[in-house]
Amino acid sequence: VLLTPEKPFRRILTGAIIREIRRKGKFILFDLTSGDTLTVHLRMTGQFLLSDPGRPIDKHTHVVFDLGPGERQLRYRDVRKFGRLGIQSREGDATGSLEGLAPDPFELDAEGFYRRLRQKNRALKPLLLDQRVVSGLGNIYVDESLHRAGLHPLTPAGALDREQARYLWRLIRAVLRQAIRAKGTTVSDYRGPEGIVGGFQRFLRVYDCTGDPCRVCRTPIEKTRVGGRGTHLCPVCQKREKPRTIRP
DNA sequence: ACTATCCCCTGACGGC
DNA sequence: TGCCGTCAGGGGATAG
Q1: What does the mean pLDDT of chain A come to?
Q2: Taking a C-beta distance cutoff of 8 angstroms, is the pair A205, A148 a contact?
Q3: C-alpha to C-alpha distance for A83 and A77, rounded to whole angstroms
Q4: Is the CB of A203 under 7 A from strand B?
Q5: What Rg, from alpha-carbon coordinates, does chain A have?
Q6: In terms of CB atoms within 10 Å, which end of chain A has fewer, N or C?
């Protein structure tokens, strides 16, 4: 392992062996045999790409990992440079801290989710995007989950009863599972490590569907702004009023 | 405790 | 063609 960044990076990564690659929320975690962990967040435009070592390094590639003789290189590319690479070191810890990060939808059960939004006055969408409440959900998957659950993004989180919270949780997990199975959502930049686009954009029902007819009621999908984020919804299926649970 | 706003950075797109 | 404003899968800092 090798390359560009700072001293602790080179020191810890040079010659390191990756024991396991994990995910927590939006973080990719490379556990090394040394006990240290490389933590990565791709943010908006970060990409890991496997590349033949001979290929020229394009101008947006910032880190190159040599994986060993005869292996392709793992290259970190990031047009907007919002992504972060850090090291969680065994002793002192350092740049790669995941402190405060909530469990993700595969680490938390429906009851735990309900407890986290119970008696909260915050609107549902900003709450779901808050990585200290639940991790792993971004703008696309929140919009998609809320539409499938028939919930308006501004619904006060505390207004959901236990059954409604469980229902939303089930749909959140279903959306994420399907998106993972489809290998991600490519609206524009996302690429998998082999450079290929994801497949979940084919299943989007509101995100990036402004003006298209809602698949449930044919009402045109609207785009608004909630908590400073672009927000897509069906004005008929997702009423601001009292939420209701629809059994599938 | 929570909201809104700006900022980080680059590229794409629309209007003039 | 060029210039300007706006917007983008995220999230941290700061002011109110």
Answers
A1: 93
A2: yes
A3: 9
A4: no
A5: 20
A6: C
User: Can you tell me whether residue A136 is helix, strand or coil?
Assistant: coil
Could you identify the residue written with the tokens 């910032």? A62
Assign residue A130 a region (left: φ > 0; alpha: ψ between -120 and 50; beta: otherwise). beta
Distance (Å, rounded) from C-alpha A64 to C-alpha A61?
A: 8
Greatest Cα pair distance in chain A: 61
What pLDDT, on a 0 to 100 scale, did the predictor assign at position A245? 56
| Tens digits of residue pLDDT in A115-149 | 999 989 999 999 999 999 999 999 999 999 999 99
A156-to-A52, A126, A160, A233 alpha-carbon distances in Å: 50, 10, 8, 16
- Nucleic acid strand B: bases within 7 A of protein CB: 1-6, 8-11
Å from A116 (CA) to C11 (C1')? 21
What is the phi-psi region of residue A15: left when phi exceeds 0, alpha when psi lies from -120 to 50, beta otherwise?
left
pLDDT of A91 over the 80 cut: no
A8-22, A67-81, A89-103: the lowest-pLDDT one: A89-103
Q: Are A158 and A117 in contact (CB under 8 A)?
A: yes
Enumerate the nucleotides of strand C whose atoms come under 7 Å of any protein CB.
7-12
* pTM recorded for the entire structure: 0.94
Q: How is residue A156 annotated by DSSP?
A: B
